[in-house]
Structures are given as C-alpha cells and as structure tokens.
Design goal:
The chain is an alpha+beta fold. It has 8 helices and 5 strands.
Length: 174
C-alpha cells in the first residue's frame, strides 16, 4: 500500500475537526476526496494506513466515524455535558461563565427576549457591547429575572444578571 492521501490533520493542520472549513470551500473538497480514498481501501490497507497515520488526540474517533458513523468520543462527551442538568441560578448569583451550564440554561430554563422588550426596559449602557464582546442577547427566567448574554471575543460566553437599576422604566410604563 502506498500512503495515498495524507489524513485531514496533516493536509490542513490549521483546520480543527468540526470546523466550518471542512464543510465548505477547499476543506470540504479535501474532506470528500480523503473520505472516498479511505473508504476505497481494503481492510488490510486501512489497518496499515491507521498504523502509518495514527489519530492525534483531537482527531480520536475519525476513522470509526468515517467507516461506521459512530460519533467520536469528544462528541459523545459534549452531548453528555450539554444534557445537564445544571443548577438554576441562585438569587445571589450575578455572573455565570461555565460554558455547558450557560448553554443548558439557555436551552432549558431561560426565555430569549425580543429586542422590543429589551429596548423598552433596559438602559442604553447595558445595550452597548463592551470591549471584548462580540454578540449580545437578553433572556428572562420564569421568576422574572433578566440576564444579559455576551459572546466573548477571547472565547466563551458570559451570562450577567441585570440589576433593577439597569431598567430604564418600569414595565407598567411600556
């Protein structure tokens, strides 16, 4: 067996597994070419290919995924973490930044607020992005507490409880 096409992580070390780069553009083309090449190998040639090109840690499970569709260990672990449950915010909690807890709260507990609701009740200073923030969204808990979600440019998410002092007017004045 010749080594044929090098594996994805060798050809494009700048593209991590799961990146959009593998689903569009030049990454997508190489993914499909490599996948076709790998699946066309006989059983013995695949075994030797795996020996020559062992999966590095971030790519663990790729060969099984390509052959059987079995999700890689990192995806299984991510799904487990996203399933929760996580503790609901306590009354004295004002900041939550643990990624899986934030995602779980958004999916299972919080309700996204419309821009009309937010603009009617929240002061301008809260609506502005701070340095290091990329995206803002606002959520409410069933108990009425409001939260500001920011996507951080450095990575991660931050949920911050809005204090009553951030409201520009009472809900009855809307």
């Amino acid at each position: 067996m010749t080594t044929g096409l090098p594996p994805l992580w060798v050809k494009h070390p700048d593209l991590p597994w799961g990146s959009l780069g593998w689903r569009m553009g030049w990454g997508e083309v190489y993914w499909e070419d490599w996948r076709s090449f790998f699946l066309a190998l006989g059983e013995e040639d695949r075994r030797r290919y795996r020996e020559v090109w062992p999966e590095p840690e971030p790519w663990q499970g790729l060969y099984a995924f390509i052959e059987t569709g079995e999700p890689p260990p990192r995806v299984v672990e991510q799904k487990r973490k996203l399933a929760g449950p996580y503790p609901l915010p306590s009354t004295d909690e004002s900041r939550i930044s643990e990624y899986y807890r934030v995602v779980w709260l958004i999916r299972q507990h919080l309700i996204e607020l419309s821009s009309q609701e937010v603009h009617a009740r929240v002061s301008e200073s809260v609506l502005r992005q701070a340095r290091g923030e990329d995206h803002l969204a606002f959520y409410a808990e069933p108990n009425g507490s409001w939260w500001r979600l920011s996507t951080l440019k450095a990575g991660g998410w931050l949920l911050q409880r809005l204090a009553a002092s951030h409201e520009s007017r009472a809900p009855s004045e809307q």
